[in-house]
Structures are given as structure tokens and as C-alpha cells.
Specification:
By secondary structure, the protein is mostly beta strands. It has two domains: about 170 residues, Galactose-binding domain-like (Jelly Rolls); about 160 residues, Sandwich (Jelly Rolls), CATH 2.60.120.260. It is built from one helix and 21 strands. The model has no long low-confidence stretch (mean pLDDT about 95). Its EC number is 3.5.3.4.
Length: about 350
């Protein structure tokens, strides 16, 4: 769709997003906005409120006593706060009942505020009031270098929106990470897959998601490799650190797990990522089994900023966990970024 779609959906339910409140949800529930799957539609499925839609749909607005029509809104807490790079407003299947215009606002509030407490937040317009079409995905790039925790979707005046996607870069709170053993490869801590050799079935960022994968689609899976070599993924860690334990989880991958895995690392502050000689082996090619978790302690691992995961020859991985310690440089990097964006 656009370049920003390569970033994770910070509002997605799979990453902890939640729709806290909405002005109205007479036809369809506000929670549908952040469902992770593509919107579906089944014609002639009429319930007590009319045709059923996989989205959020409000009642038809009428002017009040003063003649004002107003507009509808939905308040979303991002599962992973961060810098928003783009927003997708998808009106899939809403053809005669979509809103003609929409806008998006965002704010940053520490802690765990209620919907009522967010009313007085410092809201910033990140997508101005823009025209929409029916049954279409609308992509809006965002160029505001600030960390946000919540967004508010406004539609004018009413109607139905199937999905809201809020793509961006995770910016973790360093106060929750410094001084602790952390997962340096966790998406919620700021790690991200930069490149991979193949993502035919699913995206490699999936293996950095929180929680356990419930099925094959919630991990990373490649196509069947027919040529020499092996599949790989390049991962930028949350911050510079020392990995103490690596976990390779092949859960749900019963006939398509890799035969072996390997892990190597590099400090990109002192070497180029494309310099093969600068990479250090962290775990040699090691056999793994299907549908299981495999944990390996790493002895005398150096400080690294990036790792390369190799799958031999191909297959999938449900989750990758790299538990370790942030170095002083890593803690400083997280703190500086936090201060710059909040």
C-alpha cells in the first residue's frame, strides 16, 4: 500500500490495542476497528439491528435543536506507544453507509488514563479532515516526530468504518527496562526486523510479537526453498545489549519447522552490516524440533546492536526471544530517544 505499512500496527489488538470509548455504536461495535484480520462481509445476514458488518457503524445523525449535526468518534489506546508513520482508514464493504470525511488526532499521556481523563489531553491533529470513498482503504502518511499513546478517529458526520490501522515505530519507556533483564528482540521493547530472505506466508515481525502464537499464521513462515542456501532475517535489537539466552519457538509448526537454526550478532556502531567478517557467531547451527520451545544459554556473548537469524534450510518460527542485559550505551540510547520524542 505505502512504505509506512511495513511498520507494525501499533493499534492492533494482537499488540494490546483497545478501543476505549465511542460516541455511538448502534449498528456495529467499536472493537471491530482494530481486529487483526481483513474485514469480511456476508450478504443478507440481517440481525435485529440490520445488515451485519465487520466494522464500526453508528446511527444516522440528525440535527439537534440548535441545528448542529455533530460527528462521531472512537478513542483508541495504542497497544505499543510510538512514533506514528501513517494511518489507514478502511471503509471495506461500507458502500452506501460510509462517512464522507474523517480525521485522526493523537496524544501522549503517561500511565493508564480513563477515557474521561483523556478529554483534557493535548490532542494533535495527525490526519486532517479528509474525504473518504466507500469500500476503500485510505492511506495517510504522518510526519510528526512525537511519541503518542492514544488516537481518536473522527468521522463526519456518521456511518461505518471497517478498520483503523496505525503504523509506526515503537518507542518504549526506558523506565520500565533499565536495570532489568529484558527481551532485546521484543517488538514492544523497540526491536524490529529490518530485512528477510522470504516472507511468503507471513511477516517476520510476527515472531517478535508478545505472547504465544496460537497458530502458524501468527509466526514467520517462508515458502519451501528449492535452491541452495537458507532463509534468514536481520533484526535490530531494542538497544545495544548482551544476549544471555536465546529461545527459538516452533510451536504450531509441525511439518514446516526448520531443521536447524543459527544466530550471529554485530555491533553496527563500529562495523557495517554488509561486512560479513564483522559478524560474530552467537549460536552455531543447532538442531530444533517441530512444535516446541528451544532455549539455549549463550556464553561470553559480546555487546551487539543487530542479530541475524538463520533457518536451515527454510520453514518457520513462531517466536524468537533474546533475553539479556542492556549495556550502559543501550540504556542511554533508549533514554535519549524517549526524551527527544516526549
Amino acid at each position: 500500500m505505502t512504505d509506512f505499512a511495513a511498520f507494525p500496527d501499533l493499534a492492533g489488538r494482537a499488540l494490546g490495542g483497545s478501543v476505549l470509548a465511542a460516541s455511538d455504536e448502534s449498528f456495529e461495535e467499536k472493537e471491530n476497528l482494530i481486529n487483526p484480520w481483513a474485514p469480511a462481509f456476508h450478504p443478507e445476514t440481517f440481525g435485529t439491528k440490520g445488515q451485519e458488518y465487520d466494522g464500526w457503524e453508528t446511527a444516522r445523525r440528525r440535527p439537534d435543536a440548535s441545528g448542529e449535526l455533530g460527528h462521531d468518534w472512537a478513542l483508541v489506546r495504542l497497544g505499543l506507544p510510538g512514533v506514528i508513520r501513517g494511518v489507514v482508514i478502511d471503509t471495506a464493504w461500507f458502500k452506501g453507509n460510509y462517512p464522507p470525511h474523517a480525521s485522526v488526532e493523537a496524544c501522549h499521556v503517561d500511565g493508564h488514563p480513563s477515557a474521561a481523563e483523556l478529554e483534557t489531553a493535548d490532542w494533535v491533529e495527525i490526519v486532517p479532515k479528509s474525504p473518504l470513498k466507500g469500500d476503500s482503504a485510505h492511506a495517510f502518511p504522518v510526519d510528526i516526530a512525537r511519541r503518542f499513546t492514544h488516537v481518536r478517529l473522527n468521522m463526519f458526520p456518521d456511518g461505518g468504518i471497517a478498520r483503523l490501522r496505525v503504523h509506526g515505530e515503537v518507542v518504549p519507556d526506558p523506565r520500565l527496562l533499565t536495570g532489568l533483564t529484558v527481551d532485546l528482540a521484543a517488538l514492544e521493547n523497540g526491536a524490529r526486523v529490518l530485512e528477510c530472505s522470504n516472507m511468503f506466508y507471513s511477516r517476520p515481525d510476527n515472531m517478535l510479537f508478545p505472547g504465544l502464537a496460537r497458530n502458524q499464521a501468527e509466526g514467520w513462515e517462508t515458502a519451501r526453498r528449492r535452491e541452495p542456501g537458507n532463509e534468514w532475517a536481520l533484526i535490530r535489537l531494542a538497544a545495544p545489549g548482551v544476549i544471555r539466552l536465546a529461545e527459538f519457538d516452533t510451536s504450531n509448526l509441525k511439518f514446516n519447522a526448520p531443521g536447524q537454526v543459527a544466530l550471529s550478532g554485530i555491533d553496527a556502531r563500529t562495523a557495517r552490516l554488509d561486512d560479513a567478517a564483522a559478524w560474530t557467531g552467537l549460536l552455531p547451527r543447532t538442531r530444533v524440533q517441530p512444535d516446541g520451545r528451544h532455549r539455549f544459554r549463550l556464553a561470553d556473548a559480546p555487546e551487539v546492536t543487530h542479530v541475524r537469524l538463520d533457518l536451515h534450510p527454510d520453514g518457520g518460527l513462531a517466536r524468537l526471544r533474546l533475553l539479556g542485559d542492556l549495556t550502559p550505551a543501550g540504556e542511554e540510547a533508549l533514554t535519549v530517544r524517549w526524551r527527544e520524542l516526549t
